[in-house]
């Protein structure tokens, strides 16, 4: 068994993308201006403010959200032993979005800013619980069906909330918001959601050994001393914290949770535990790359992040389905 | 599609007063299907002659007219509501409620369609047009005279150097540009709109807004400021830091409606702009 330096390479790529993200925008900030080389004091101050107050929180939010999605995808695929499991496909993202929409349009978020991530989290928790309960023991297909039906329910709830929203702009705004974006986010939003994402990821990171045991089958895992109900609850809680908080700020960003684990799995010889860290790094890198892409594409309207990840991710999903059809009996 | 026979029956059933009263008599049961027309109608005729206005006017429009608007019956722009009110005149915008307008035309209801305007001359023209149809030409002239008085004092009180302003409601496309009534009001008040993009370069984000280096942000407020995401970006802490006092709000309806009261809104804006010029001078 060869060992490849997967984690260092991914970490280096992520660092490069992070720095590139700071220097990409709808407007080009010359590094000289940021360093004060142009002699225009007001311009330097403005350039620094844009860097510190706009691009840095945006890049950090992208990093955390991408890491959350990548890790959740890897853990959910390990738990369900289903290569198609992903926060989006299991309805967890839609549940988080519903919670956030309720917080935003009821006016609750204006009174208590923390309401948006908290309701997003609650929505994610409930949908994760519901989908996994519905899909348990039914095999790969039943789980995906459970996810899509729960997802449909949450979308209907979102439509209802918009229907009842007093502001007529709500429907337009939320259709934009649901496309997913980390543009124009600030430290305030990062401070609201960041801690939840970090705690959620920490919870999920600790599940590696159990996932390895589970890869052998439920009976074998139990005989190895794995408390399965507790593992499930821990994964649901971790996913709800990470994806719920991320989605409540960024909107629904699809397919990263699906793509990231698959991109790295073959590099670590398909061991669930060893997928976790690379999938996390890969998720963050893919999200940052996509966000840079939205700003570099020369379009009049800035492309929404979720649209770009969907355009890249959906064909990947199709390829995955085709491969499953070939290998499955 | 409604069959012609059905339409004819509907019209006969309603025995439209417009036909009985003839075209010459001033209308007595006026229905307005347009927020801007609501404001004109309420300013021009006594409330007793108004059959209904749009539901929007209960929260939008001229603040001075809100109490009246809340007492009047409202419609939501549907043909059923309009026909049931048996109007002898319906005023609608040229580009809205098109299904209703088509149906009203087929039912033979007298219909006045007003155009959106983008400058003071346009306001004069549309006010005169509506006033003439309502049989209130004199009242219309009085409103225009009041507007012109205000415009004269606005010209006298204009700040020496125009205040650089960007009108931005928080969304990428919420930036009123050239050839808008917003721009006319802003320039009359003594500001200059720096939120105008070159052709083909759509979309403003916070980066682009601050790099235009405006002295103030002008944020449109509508629908009773009910919760919406478009206010989220305007609350960004970079903007709060750069513009601690320089975030002005304006009633979107008055900045987009061709009504003489727009001059009142321009005066309010001028006072805010002069405050900003003053605090800049003290700094």
In short:
The complex is a heterodimer of chains A (329) and B (283). Chain A has 15 helices and no strands.
Would you give an account of this structure?
The complex is a heterodimer of chains A (329) and B (283). Chain A has 329 residues and is mainly alpha-helical. Chain A has helices spanning 6-22, 31-35, 41-80, 92-105, 108-111, 115-135, 139-164, 170-177, 187-205, 208-214, 218-223, 228-250, 256-265, 272-296, 305-327. The radius of gyration of chain A is 20 Å and the shape is globular. In chain B, 47% of the residues lie in helices and 13% in strands. Chain B contains 14 helices and 9 strands. In chain B, the strands form 2 sheets. A 5-stranded parallel beta sheet of chain B has the order 3-2-1-4-5, sandwiched between helices. In chain B, helix 7 (120-134) packs antiparallel against helix 8 (137-156), helix 8 (137-156) packs parallel to helix 14 and helix 9 (181-189) packs across helix 14. Mean pLDDT of chain B is 83; it is low at 12-22. Classes of the chains: A mainly alpha (329), B alpha/beta (283).
* Major β-sheet annotation of chain B: 5 strands, parallel
| Strand line-up of the largest beta sheet of chain B | 3-2-1-4-5
| Tally of contiguous helical segments of chain B | 14
What global shape of chain B is seen? globular
Mean pLDDT of chain A: 87
